Amino acid sequence: MRRAVRFTLLFCLAAGLALAEENAGGEGHLQMWKWANFLLLAGGLGYLMAKTLPPLFAARTQSITKDMVESQRIHKEADERAAEVERRLAAIDTEIAALRAESREETTAEAERLAKHTAAEVARIQAQAEREIGDAGKDARLELKRYTAGITIDLAAQKIRARMTPATEDRLIRGFMRALK
After folding, report:
1. What is the pTM of this model?
2. Which letter does DSSP use for residue 24 in this model?
């Protein structure tokens, strides 16, 4: 690119000199300086542009390329995330149905467990009540026997006291003494 700029600069300088010789005169001389000034300005601008623009364009191209690569990476990640979300959304109905079925099974199992537990508790309470009733019946029968025995003994004691005379008492005491000897 530098060669092209130099060649263009030399060509413009040669064209300007040729024009200047052709117009050799008072007004032509001024015209020649205008052309020389224009060529000098154009050459300087061309030189500055040739020196600064290529690195600027290269940096800008590199920046654009980097941004494009980054945007492609981000776009790819976004597509992957969107695919993951769509996959999850597609599977969510299945997951909800599975959770509902699992919940129903757990509810049924819990109800059965509670029914078994309740039946076992009822049987235990009933057995305990029967034992307590049986024990209370035994206690009542024993109490009744004691009471009856007490009344019987009292009646017998009353009968014996009623039949007991001083002569009977003496006979009993003598018989007891003989048994002791």
Report:
1. 0.36
2. -
How far, in Å, CA of 66 to CA of 43, rounded? 34
Compute the distance between CA of residue 22 and CA of residue 39 in angstroms, rounded to an integer: 17
Residue whose pair of structure tokens reads 């492609």 in the numeric block: 72
For 49, the token pair is 């542009």
pLDDT, tens digit, 9 for 90 and up, residues 104-119: 999 999 999 999 999 9
Contact partners, residue 16, CB within 8 Å, separation at least 6: 32, 35, 36, 38, 39
- Within the chain, residue ranges assigned H as helices are 2-22, 26-163, 166-180
One-letter identity of residue 94:
T
Least confident of 6-15, 98-107, 118-127, 139-148: 6-15
